[in-house]
Amino acid sequence: MSNYTNSPCAACKFLRRKCTSDCVFAPYFPPEEPTKFANVHRIFGASNVSKILQEVAPHQREDAVNSLAYEAEARLKDPVYGCVGAISVLQRQVLRLQRELEETNADLMRYASCLGGETTSAYGGRRG
Known about the structure:
Blueprint: H1 10-15, H2 34-44, H3 46-55, H4 61-77, H5 83-115, E1 119-120, E2 126-127
Antiparallel strand pairs: 1-2
């Protein structure tokens, strides 16, 4: 049963079963987060999640549930690639921004070399 309330955890409520004191889902699916379990259940199934939680060391279960929840949400948005699709989009964006930064730095270097030994004031005017 959840540590914070007497109501059943989100998993037991979703599955319409009694939430017992040894419920494997209760610590990770609190009653105030019903969508979290619903998404995980829709993608992985309650039985598979239960097996995963039982196989994972107790100190790693919260991380495992957070990973499952993240992947489930990503799979609902992108059924084919899931979170890998999001990672791929972000990697392409980083590469594009790195190229843009390199081009901007090259432009700055060309601009600085055009000025030669001259410096500019804070207002853009040349000082000799």
